[in-house]
Specification:
alpha+beta, Jelly Rolls, 13-stranded mixed sheet, 6-stranded antiparallel sheet, 13 helices, 29 strands, about 35% strand, sigma factor antagonist activity, Galactose-bd-like_sf, transmembrane, NPCBM_sf, FecR
């Protein structure tokens, strides 16, 4: 049997002998036993041991021969009060009785061996417990000699617990060493098995081996590659066994354990007295072990509960939520808090401004300089590849730094009205939201989550920069398009365009404010480098064309 099957079979056998399997688990046990002769032979041997312990007094002798009363099995049974109080009292050592005088010569029958009844009762009552403990010992973290099993690969804003060992980036991580205790900040550890995990302070854990972590308290997010399936996170009351996944574990000091599975599947096993609770958790679901009720309960899966990735240089902490492109346009990173900055970008130059300028086409567009229609890199923003003014017609419209061409670009007058910005900047500078609300054509929720691109203008995002942070290969781009009503009676018409690597993926032509909102989403493959958003004047100039890409987000897959 492989390691994964052996682990699963052990737990199912233990639960079956205690009568605690669900219908699903019983069906799974039957499936494993039918699969190979090896699994059936293994199960038969376990059942034989169990039957022997239940029928024989040898278990009592084994108990009496223990060198120390601190033996784990004895202590476990006594601490958990297995059996009745009367049984425990019977288990105490009896007072020695005075020896009786025997005659010098007697004819005696063969003496029968005396068996201590209390010990026999104790052995019989705990036979199932012994079997379970035998299996648990086979799965529990083993204390190996200290060895190097990983390295601290990244750290950010760390504050270590008092008396805890201070680790620096690049330091080796060893087994059988003091617990890694973090009061604040974030660390990432890469294990030799290929497993990597992040921890957010406050947290305390020990690395038992390169495929086992023992978490005392705090939050871990674990990524397990295919070759490391079977990786385990253990807590005081539970064990989480990876079955090919990404998952987060939250351990409270009270003993409650919460498991959120992002991808794949895990096995969640909790220790309850001498029996176990066992459930498989599929992706996008979460469960919690409530130590007060001794029950596993389903809870809401939270996509952004755990820190998955962080970048010390860029000061980015990503918890798995959507990447907000409106925040990036304003100078943020789209992954932390929104709108900490209010930057805007000129489509005619690529320059970034802290304030929004009106009608700057008078200075830049009216002369229609040749450079005006070039692609302009935005060097100050790592996630924005660049911006441009679409011309179309006889002009070639380059939309990214690799030279991809917007072949379907319509002819325009080459003018743009203002900078590309997010809705917050637009509202603060022009109080535009008040007018839009009065005209009942702009949803209040989007005032901090939209990109304002007044024709004629385009902006391109570098998808590989997002991949560096999230380690995701594919994305889904979700957005809506609308034109906000202006303060003029004659609202304009405009076109919306979305491109990936210069290829047209979405268009909405001659849209007006009266048409309202249109929702869309686009799948982006792993070999796509750029995402481009464009607006053009709709064939009647660009007057009053207040184009908005509402709530544009990238969702990592």
């Amino acid at each position: 049997m492989d390691k994964k099957t052996s682990i699963e079979l052990n737990f199912l056998l233990a639960g079956g002998m205690e009568g605690g399997l669900t219908d699903e688990q019983r069906s799974r046990l039957n499936e494993l036993l039918e699969r190979t002769q090896e699994s059936r032979s293994y199960a038969l041997e376990i059942y034989r041991i169990s039957a022997g312990l239940k029928k024989s007094a040898k278990a009592a002798e084994a108990f009496s021969q223990r060198e120390s009363p601190e033996d784990f099995t004895q202590r476990f049974i006594l601490d958990n009060s297995i059996g009745s109080p009367e049984l425990l009292r019977l288990g105490k050592k009896e007072q020695d009785k005075p020896e009786e005088t025997e005659p010098d010569i007697c004819e005696c029958a063969e003496q029968k061996r005396k068996v201590s009844m209390p010990n026999l009762i104790l052995a019989a009552s705990s036979a199932a417990a012994l079997i379970f403990l035998l299996l648990w010992a086979n799965l529990a973290p083993g204390r190996l000699p200290s060895e190097q099993v990983g390295v601290l690969s990244e750290a950010m804003d760390t504050s270590w617990a008092e008396k805890a060992e201070v680790l620096n980036v690049g330091d080796d991580v060893f087994t059988n060493s003091a617990a890694i205790a973090l009061d604040e900040g974030f660390i990432e550890i890469e294990l030799n098995s290929g497993v990597s995990f992040t921890a957010e302070g406050p947290a305390s854990f020990e690395v038992i081996s390169d495929d086992q972590i023992e978490l005392s308290y705090g939050e871990l997010y674990v990524t397990v590659p295919n070759q490391a399936v079977g990786f385990q996170v253990t807590t005081e009351n539970s064990k989480i066994i990876d079955l090919g996944t990404e998952f987060g574990v939250s351990q409270e000091i009270s003993g409650d354990t919460e498991v959120h599975v992002t991808k794949g599947k895990t096995s969640f096993v909790t220790r309850k007295f001498v029996s176990t609770n066992h459930i498989n958790i599929n992706e996008k679901t979460a469960y919690c072990f409530d130590v007060s009720t001794k029950k596993i309960l389903e809870v809401n899966f939270r996509e952004n509960k755990f820190v998955r990735e962080f970048d010390t240089d860029k000061r980015i902490v990503w918890r798995g939520g959507p990447i907000k492109l409106a925040d990036i346009v304003a100078g943020g990173n789209g992954m932390n808090n929104l709108n900490v900055k209010r930057e805007a970008i000129s489509p005619g130059t690529g320059k970034v401004s802290q304030s929004l300028l009106l009608r700057n086409y008078v200075k830049e567009s009216i002369e229609l300089k040749k450079t005006h229609f070039a692609f302009h890199p935005v060097e100050s923003n790592p996630f924005v590849d660049g911006v441009f003014v679409p011309k179309g017609g006889e002009e070639t419209c380059t939309v990214n730094s690799k030279g991809h061409i917007f072949q379907e670009c319509p002819p325009t007058d080459g003018r743009y009205w203002t900078y590309i910005c997010n809705i917050q900047s637009y509202n603060l500078d022009f109080q535009g939201w008040k007018k839009q609300r009065e005209l009942n054509n702009f949803r209040r929720a989007s005032r901090h989550a939209g990109i304002f691109i007044h024709p004629n203008a385009g902006i391109t995002f570098d998808l590989n920069k997002f991949r560096e942070i999230t380690e995701a290969e594919k994305f889904t781009f979700k957005f809506s398009t609308l034109i906000s009503s202006s303060d003029k009676t004659d609202n304009g018409k405009a076109d919306f365009w979305v491109l990936t690597d210069g290829e047209l993926r979405y268009k909405r032509l001659k849209a007006t404010a009266e048409m309202g909102v249109e929702n869309e989403q686009i799948h982006i493959d792993s070999d796509t480098d750029f995402l481009t958003l464009v607006t053009t004047g709709g064939g009647n100039g660009n007057g009053n064309d207040r184009c908005i890409f509402e709530e544009p987000v990238l969702i990592a897959e």
